[in-house]
Design goal:
Number of domains: 1
Structural class: mainly alpha
Order of helices and strands: HHHHHHEEHEH
Radius of gyration: 21 Å
Strand order of the largest sheet: 1-2-3
Largest sheet: 3 strands, antiparallel
Helix content: 55-70%
């Protein structure tokens, strides 16, 4: 099972540089969601009870991450149908979909840029750096859905700042912790038998 390193969120929050805090949080999210995506193979293995090599050969034929996710979730859902673990799995499944969907913070970060504004300056606001306007104000860093995609109707308006992204990070950590524990429970039950971890 692939594990992303769990970062020290408290240390990031304690950083007084708002730009560094935001970029550090973005790095946390990219790493954690990559770990979550790799865990899809473990879910697929648990669903089909096949070895890691065979499972990878099947799952990674799907190039789109969303398709890999759906294949893994369907496999384990079928295995746990009408079992005592089905309800708990349904809750985890919903959390996985929410964390990795096109409306997720991770998707926003992957396809948009960090922006900055100055607020509260004596001479007004500036959007492009220090200058006559906003040089004495407070810098604000955020990621916002590109307005051209919104106008085209391909994406919905969405904006994230440090506070919302740090909460998203905490949610990812909780999800991955819960998922690890759940997969262990599945492996210890008759309807989730231990399976080979390698070989053909």
């Amino acid at each position: 099972m692939a594990h992303a390193r769990i970062p020290n969120i408290d240390a990031i929050e304690a950083n007084q540089d708002p730009e560094m805090r935001l970029y550090a949080t973005i790095g946390v999210i990219i790493s954690l969601t990559a770990g979550l995506e790799l865990t899809l193979l473990d879910i697929f293995i648990a669903g089909l009870c096949i070895n890691e090599r065979t499972a990878g050969e099947i799952l990674f034929q799907a190039k789109a991450g969303s398709l890999q996710r759906d294949m893994a979730l369907i496999a384990l859902s079928a295995r746990l149908k009408d079992t005592p673990l089905e309800a708990d799995w349904k809750g985890l499944q919903d959390r996985i979909i929410k964390a990795t969907s096109q409306g997720s913070s991770r998707h926003l970060l992957a396809h948009n840029v960090v922006r900055m504004t100055y607020e509260g300056g004596g001479f007004g606001m500036g959007a492009f750096g220090e200058g006559a306007f906003g040089a004495t104000g407070e810098s604000r860093y955020f990621v916002e859905q590109d307005h051209r995609k919104v106008l085209a109707g391909t994406q919905k308006p969405k904006k994230e700042d440090f506070s919302s992204l740090i909460e998203y990070s905490r949610g990812l950590i909780a999800l991955m912790t819960d998922l690890d524990g759940f997969l262990l429970r599945v492996s210890e039950t008759p309807y989730g038998r231990p399976h080979p971890s390698g070989g053909a």
